[in-house]
Design a protein that fits this description.
Belongs to the small heat shock protein (HSP20) family. This protein is an alpha+beta fold and 152 residues long.
């Protein structure tokens, strides 16, 4: 009677090589997600949302931006917070009189989904010392009745 590990592949794939292969794959995936996380951090910013009895309060950390570089867009059931900046640098080599100019654009955004439709009247915002605070009034549930017609 042949043992399970007498197959032609058992010399290639044993527990030790499979274990090594799995560890290598796990390491590859972990490193890939580390790079992804650092990439995503550059496209976003810290945002915390908490709820009180009457409103939602969203607090965003936007250091390095000023008030004119921030937009809050009211969507049907969400808010979009966008911050953008343009940076220009110009370097001149005095010995060769060559000038190099660079310009970069940065845009970061976050979406805040909400369980009700919004209007601009429902939202207020303040910005001070790199901290954006958005207050969103809660909407009370409303009900509407429909008249029932007789069929003809």
């Amino acid at each position: 009677m042949a043992k399970d590990n007498d197959s032609p592949l058992s010399s290639i794939f044993n527990e030790q090589t499979i274990s090594t292969w799995i560890k290598s794959l796990e390491s590859f995936i972990d490193k890939s997600f580390e790079h992804y996380a650092s990439f995503v951090d550059h496209l976003s910013f810290p945002l915390d949302v908490h709820e009180t009895r009457t409103e939602y309060i969203a607090t965003a950390r936007l250091d390095g931006y000023d008030q004119k570089q921030i937009q809050i867009e009211v969507l049907d059931r969400a808010l979009r917070v966008i911050a953008f900046a343009t940076e220009s640098t110009k370097l001149t080599n005095e010995s060769t009189s060559l000038t190099s100019a660079n310009q970069s654009h940065k845009r970061v955004e976050r979406l805040i989904p909400l369980p009700f439709e919004l209007t601009t009247e429902d939202v207020t915002a303040t910005f001070q010392d790199g901290l954006l605070k958005i207050r969103i009034k809660k909407k009370l549930p409303t009900s509407h009745y429909i008249d029932i017609q007789e069929e003809e």
